[in-house]
Amino acid sequence: MTTSDEPDQEPVAPQLVRPYVITNGRNLLGDHEFSLITLVTAAEDISRTGNLDPEKRRLLELCSGGYLSVAEIVGHSHLPVGVVKILLSDLTEEGYLFTRAPIPAAKLVDRHILEEVLNGLQARFG
Amino acid sequence: MAFKPALDDGVYLRESVQTAAKILVVGHFAVGKTTFIGTMSEIPPLRTEELMTQAGEGIDDLKGTTGKTTTTVAMDFGRLTLSDRLVLYLFGTPGQQRFVQVWEDMSRGALGALVLVDPERLEESFPVMDLVEHYGIPYTIAVNRFDDTETHQDEEIREALDLLPETPLVNCDARDQRSSANALIVLVRYLQSRLR
User: Fold this and answer.
1) Where are the domains of chain B?
2) Cβ separation B5–A76 shorter than 8 A
3) Which pLDDT band holds residue A19 (cuts at 50, 70, 90)?
4) Which of B12, B116, B186, B193 is most buried as measured by Cβ atoms within 10 A of its Cβ?
């Protein structure tokens, strides 16, 4: 069996808006505090959204139903990863979003996390 | 609005989830990464797209351009809520050397990697194994058996892939949930054994 649906070499539809236009010219490269598995949700009081750019407002709306990872926000919004990270970073600074940080690198080898992963897999599929 | 998924179909995480972990599912093109993720994920698999700048071909310079091109790298991923407070993400990561920028990002914060191999095309797994080893990601080999004909024995595969004795090798069928979950369990047990 060969899977033909893998994304590796697929052509991708062109962007309608160049990414740096959406981000007001901010650089797409460099370090951001957001990783793909940072969990994000909208703050409870988000009444003053009138001044937000349309893309930011749409991301905020997507985040308003509960926690999602940055990767899921990227997947649902169909925006590039770098653009989403910048917009989410702005929204967080502006107080619209809350985040739950991913596991710090030093704790990755934490036996508790591995044990929890193992127990979870065994409970669901064992 | 098309942007927003339906709210009632398990799109969002449970309120109690505090921690997110990730495991990479890697392998060459068409080895079954997307199938594996689709089998294991509790949500329909999603795709991320990242813009990457690459050094261009020499011909670009002749035309007076900057010699750089932008390409898009796509990755499929899935989600598994494993407890009230922990969610695991499985990221299918392409195995080509030209995606090193993606690998730098993906290796950061990964618990480990499951390397899917096709027993009939072992040599195509060499570049991806070079990458996991280069980035120091602990891994387990999952031999994706598309049918029951075991033409290659485990020992032959270990030898062909030049595995260390401690590197686990497990057979799995990426279309089967129990079999795929077992491959992840073997990987996590191996990650635990490295701590002892």
Assistant:
1) 19-45+77-193
2) yes
3) low
4) B116
